[in-house]
Amino acid sequence: xxxxxxxxxxxxxxxxxxxxxxxxxxxxxxxxxxxxxxxxxxxxxxxxxxxxxxxxxxxxxxxxxxxxxxxxxxxxxxxxxxxxxxxxxxxxxxxxxxxxxxxxxxxxxxxxxxx
Length: 115
Hints:
The chain is an all-alpha fold.
């Protein structure tokens, strides 16, 4: 899409939003379309959720979530790192044991072939 097409499309969107805002103002609303949508969403919230007690509980829950979620993520990262380190160590021990076994087998094969 060329720049002129993009500019024309953006101008059309601006004109459409301007017309929508003008229609809202004619209906008695003073504000933008975003404010109208926010007001509509606020009206859809049940009344009992708008009380001070409910808002206080919502804030407590939000605060708890903001504290607990990072702690859980940190714990997962730490334990994941520990498990990765343990797996790495086990892999290294397994390789070392395999090399030692290969050396013993090779020694025994050489010893048996000379007899």
